[in-house]
Amino acid sequence: MNIKLTPPLSIRGDMNLPYSKSISNRVLLLNKLAESKISPENVAVCDDSEMMQRALSAKESVIDTGAAGTATRFATAYLSMLAGEHILTGSERMKQRPIAVLVDALRKIGADIEYVEREGFLPLKIRGRLLKGGVIELNGGVSSQYVSALLMIAPYTESGLKLILTGDIISFPYIRMTLALMARYGVSATVKDNVITVPSGRYNPIPYRIEADWSAASYWYGFVAMSNDADIILEGLDNDSIQGDSKVASLFSPLGVATEFNDGYIALRKCNAVRKLYEADLTDTPDLAQTIVVTAALKDIPFKLTGLQSLRIKETDRIAALVEEMKKLGYVLDASEEGALSWNGEKVLPKENISIATYDDHRMAMSFSLASFIFPRLEICNATVVTKSYPSFWTDLSKAGFIVEEC
After folding, report:
1. Rounded to whole angstroms, how far apart are CA atoms 12 and 197?
2. What is the DSSP pairing of strand 378-380 with strand 355-356?
3. Which of 37, 148, 367, 375 gives the lowest tally of CB atoms within 10 Å of its CB?
4. Active site residues
5. Are residues 274 and 297 in the same domain?
6. Are 296 and 303 in contact (CB under 8 A)?
7. Do the domain assignments include residue 163?
8. Contact yes or no for 131/109 (Cβ under 8 A)
């Protein structure tokens, strides 16, 4: 389904955001390992979390996690210690996303994993067994999901795990989130410099209530930044969050959005603190990059974003996708520096009858919806891709006054 999108003159609404899929997927795995009979509350209703639940409860020998990167990485670690022989596969895009770093690390602590087709990629044949644990060195510049997958199963190895992270560590808030959740379930790791040590042990079954998703909130920050008149309430968020993307509040202040924190919700308002040049290191918050890029460019604010190394191996090559789709809108981005993306104000004529390709990437669809403020009736292709993390996104936009037309 493609949609055409037209924004309202003023944007208002009280929104119930989806629950955090990052927390949901971790809690689902920890709950499973704890052999808990208590189901977590507010598990995210989205493709990624549904795939995670499928992987953890599958009775079949073949497990397909689709396009869900988090579920795939976490399932790889979980299945490596689950008795039996399993085939783990995914979508065509998932088969293009490298997994060798995680497989090599699991093999070092005793996992029996083979590549079924292409070396370094799904599908995997996994023969589950008790893992011995030990010491692993891992490049901290790869996906934090690899690190989180190893950490969560570490207590169930014979000797626990000492994980030594080398190089620059990206997306560290997601690692902190994992460690915080593990501690709530009863296993506390020690962190000293770049070394994380997890003892052998067991998780305790506990009740857990999942908070709303700060990554989903980022698009509403973008709408407020782009609108001339805005008043948005986002339910289920507060200032005490374990989500790294809660940093969106400070990242969008220079783009003209003020955040008022209340008990159980936040209010977004327009403010005048707009910079003439926007610079940010998104090493800890790469999922916010697309929203910031679109917002800053459309507000004619030159920018330079760094810390984007992981964007090349997301649902799509997000840097390449941003360059391509922003050029359709008339903005010439510079991706010549590794791990960085910038815009110096260079423009070309935008294309006529613009259709935004989404590359099977939910964040491309949602972030480029912001462009409708400059290009009314902008067409977003394959709009249903938002089900990966925010299934009610287009419905919520309608509630806020947008005209959402199927085409």
Report:
1. 47
2. parallel
3. 37
4. 287
5. yes
6. yes
7. yes
8. yes
CA dihedral 165, 168, 173, 179 (to 10 degrees): 10
Same domain, residue pair 247 and 369 = yes
Pairing of strands 11-16, 230-235: parallel
Buried residues in 117-138 as b, exposed as e (16+ CB within 10 A): eeeebbbbebebeebebeebeb
> Is the separation of the CB atoms in 63 and 76 below 8 Å?
no
Q: Are 128 and 81 in contact (CB under 8 A)?
A: yes
Tell me which DSSP letter residue 199 carries: -
User: What distance in Å separates the CA atoms of residue 391 and residue 362, rounded to the nearest whole number?
Assistant: 10
Statement: the pTM of the whole predicted model exceeds 0.85 = yes
> Residue 227's domain spans which residues?
3-18+212-406
Backbone phi and psi for residue 6, each to the nearest 5 degrees, phi listed first:
-130, 125
**Amino acid at the residue 260:** E
Co-location of 102 and 152 in the same domain: yes
* Crossing angle of the two packed helices 214-226 and 289-298, in degrees rounded to 10: 0
Burial class (CB in 10 A: 0-12, 13-18, 19+), 104: middle
- The angle, 0 to 180 degrees and rounded to 10, between the axes of the packed helices 144-153 and 172-184 is 20
Residue 140: per-residue pLDDT: 86
List pLDDT tens digits, range 6-28. Answer: 999 999 999 999 999 999 999 99
pLDDT tens across 395-406, in order?
999 999 999 999
Distance CA 361, CA 315 (A): 5
Decide if 88 contacts 124 (C-beta within 8 A).
yes
